[in-house]
């Protein structure tokens, strides 16, 4: 039926959107991995510790104290270290390690990817405005306000302006300054909201 076909098209579009977002997020994991592989041992250890601290703080701020982030670096025969990113969840006194790409629900991979982007800019000492397109797109509704507060905190502590582009109304409500882009008759105009 026509209704079933429209439902299938909508489901396909949602899956394509999720795959595109996941590909972008995996890209930051690859870039971070390559960066860690390319630096000297002392710098690698310092960067690893800094990344773990920044991402763990972000996970805990959004999801809760049972979450942490670990960068596992293993030597290889080629001399180029193997780098894995792990999410650690503490449940009933047991620590469970998993790859963040396998997902924990609630947008854990979004939180990690967004925080890694920010951390890498800080570590590489890049200045300027940070633009983020749908930074917490798959974060569950119950965590959206925490995620928005995290982004504001990142901006305040780094002295950077962070501009997030989003359609998520919960995320928009939690932002401290809003500019809505409205398209009418083929023209776009910006409207500042309180």
The rough form would be described as: globular
Alpha-beta classification: alpha+beta
Instruction: Classify the beta-strand content into a percent band.
Output: 15-25%
Q: Secondary-structure element order, as H and E?
A: HHEEEHEHEHEE
* Neighbour order of strands in the largest sheet: 1-2-3
Overall pLDDT metric: 80
Question: How many angstroms separate the termini?
Answer: 45 Å
The biggest sheet, with number of strands, parallel, antiparallel or mixed sense and barrel status, is:
3 strands, antiparallel
List the total number of helices: 5
Residue runs with pLDDT of under 50 for 5 or more positions: none
The Rg value, from CA coordinates, equals: 19 Å
Number of β-strand runs: 7
Structure commentary:
The protein has five helices and seven strands; from the N terminus they run H-H-E-E-E-H-E-H-E-H-E-E. Helix 2 (about 40-60) crosses helix 3. By secondary structure, it is an alpha+beta fold. The chain has helices at about 1-40, 40-60, 110-125, 145-160, 170-175, and strands spanning about 65-75, 80-90, 95-100, 130-135, 160-165, 180-185, 185-194. The model has no long low-confidence stretch (mean pLDDT about 80).
Brief description of this entry?
The chain has 194 residues and is α+β, with helices and mostly antiparallel strands. The protein has five helices and seven strands; from the N terminus they run ααβββαβαβαββ.
